[in-house]
């Protein structure tokens, strides 16, 4: 069994390489992503709200959304009003409690996010395509193993 110092060094070294890798990807994509998102004329909080609604994949209350993005109920309500005005989010009364408003993505909101996700996927494909085939295969297998360890239900190989 390795000594605790060996484990700490391994964790630190792996974390450092992972950080450099993610930072490199982010730098390569940052200008394109920033330009694309700036064109939406939304605040970062409003964009985060869209991502939460996409992740939840069901209507959520304004209160739940506020908690998820770390905003006050009033700020989340204002952000939701803006997103509703842009026709990216739909707001409806809860069927069981009319005082509660439920938010969900509209088709337009889903299309906007799908466009962003497609752009990121295309950018990643461009990066991976620059790698030699043997390195791509090793990288894919290693990432698959890591994902299986972290979250087996999400691995699609």
Notes on the protein architecture:
Residues 15-148 form the HTH marR-type domain. Keywords: DNA-binding, Transcription, Transcription regulation. It comes from Gordonia liuliyuniae. Pfam families: MarR_2. With 157 residues, the chain is mainly α. It has 3 domains: 1-39; 42-105, Winged helix-like DNA-binding domain superfamily/Winged helix DNA-binding domain (Arc Repressor Mutant, subunit A, Orthogonal Bundle); 107-157. It contains 6 helices and 3 strands, in the order ααβααββαα. It has helices at residues 4-38, 44-56, 62-69, 73-85, 107-129, 133-150; strands at residues 60-61, 89-93, 101-105. The protein has a 3-stranded antiparallel sheet. Strand 2 (89-93) and strand 3 (101-105) form a beta hairpin. Helix 2 (44-56) packs across helix 4 (73-85).
Secondary structure tally, helices: 6
Q: Total number of β-strand segments?
A: 3
CATH architecture of the largest domain: Orthogonal Bundle
Helix content: over 70%
Structural class: mainly alpha
The fraction of residues assigned to DSSP E strands is 5-15%
- What does the largest sheet look like? 3 strands, antiparallel
Q: Tell me the overall shape.
A: elongated
Mean pLDDT reading: 86
User: Could you say how many structural domains there are in total?
Assistant: 3
CATH-assigned homologous superfamily of the largest domain: Winged helix-like DNA-binding domain superfamily/Winged helix DNA-binding domain
First and last CA, distance = 31 Å
The CATH first-level class of the largest domain comes to: Mainly Alpha
Contiguous runs where pLDDT drops below 50 for at least 5 residues: none
- CATH topology name of the largest domain, in short, is Arc Repressor Mutant, subunit A
What spatial order of strands do you see in the largest sheet?
A: 1-3-2
Indicate the radius of gyration in whole angstroms. Answer: 20 Å
String of helices and strands: HHEHHEEHH
Pfam families: MarR_2
Keywords: DNA-binding, Transcription, Transcription regulation
Protein name: MarR family transcriptional regulator
InterPro entries: HTH_MarR-typ, Tscrpt_reg_MarR-type_CS, WH-like_DNA-bd_sf, WH_DNA-bd_sf
